């Protein structure tokens, strides 16, 4: 029988949870959030509104002078960047090996390969598409530039399908990993500007996207509910 904990002990236990600062409209924040939820890692939520500039509060700037999210504070240990955060929490909490396949050197290399590639080849085009297609600037829409960016997205989507998913259901193999979470969160950003056809029309990638979503439910839909406001803003700006 476990010993009873008094109120003070429970309070200490609560404060020991990792503090997670995030805004679910951000792709990397969603990736960490979904990872935490899917693996059952408890955390203290610190919702931070990027559009209101809450990341610039003195308390947060002391933790991260880059003024960026996501960010975790694990009893004074500060860590930023979604990939580093997921790696750290996976190892600290000894999550199922499939998420971060440390015991399979080839699968781990595949996860690393994708995560190192996706920053420039997936994330960057998706972010630029958000700006150009979303009409969130006062400049007129450059149709030629928009066409170029669409082709960029189609190119990396084809690469994901032909290279990463050609003979396996998930990026690293038969099970979902942190690489799949990062990839889906980047592509999902395009739904906010009604450009999801750029990846869903690829048969292999579209099927993989639905598999990953199913693995992350009900938390995936929860994340995208927050993202719905972003989509509405885009529709109103059209």
UniProtKB/TrEMBL annotation:
Keywords: Cytoplasm. This is GSTT3-like protein. Residues 104-234 form the GST C-terminal domain. Residues 16-97 form the GST N-terminal domain. SUPFAM superfamilies: GST C-terminal domain-like, Thioredoxin-like. The keyword Cytoplasm applies. The keyword Nucleotide-binding does not apply. Its main location: cytoplasm. It comes from Mya arenaria. It is found in: Cytoplasm. It comes from the Eukaryota. It holds the Pfam family GST_C. Belongs to the GST superfamily.
